[in-house]
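Run log, item B.
One chain of 236 residues. Sequence copied directly from the ordering sheet:
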Amino acid sequence: MAMLTIEDLSVYYGVIQAIKGVSFSVDEGEVVALIGSNGAGKTTILHTVTGLVGAKGGSIQFQGKDLTKTPAHRIVQMGMAHVPEGRRIFSSLTVYENLKLGAYTRKRGDNINATLDMIYERFPRLQERKSQVAGTLSGGEQQMLAMGRALMSNPKIILMDEPSMGLSPILVNEIFDIIESISKSGTTVLLVEQNAKKSLAIADRAYVLETGKIALSGKASDLMDDESVKKAYLGE
């Protein structure tokens, strides 16, 4: 069953149309990848879904509720979390303070400490560095913190924007392992990534975005074998 349904989405920046009638869905429990080159509109789609950018036309349905007029903080309360491109951690706060801020929409006594323990179990380095100022962490640790902070809201779906950007190959593997484990623990994932090979390897389905439109879609394993995808995105 579709958890998130986007239909005929149009987004403009001034007079420039960035997203041109995009439609796609994410089913409960899936990992869905949005791949495409720089400037294709992937980040704009995520920003529109999470209420950071307004849609000009179309609809965004999350568990049957329309999000197009819903403020961003309400969308978080409804069970959607966003790991933004560039991590956007609070660099002057400690690791622990960043994580606690991730739970700001949850009610007191909502077993937040149990979620924190789960985050520390999944990201042992964050526990080791919980009192450290977040801006002093390495790039990989900052990415783990951004993911941990998003998970603190106990989301039903997590949207990730370029989680492997700027990381070493070893850390890229680690981040993708973590995304797989997040999915296996029952959280639905919508993944925007330039690393198409890694994305398609862990995704159930994928959509290829080109200049604001969906050019291709299908099972991730099928797109892996598609000649045009190989040529354009897999370096083959």
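Observations after the first pass:
- The mean pLDDT is 90.
- The chain has two domains: 2-79+155-233, 89-153.
Flagged for discussion on Thursday.
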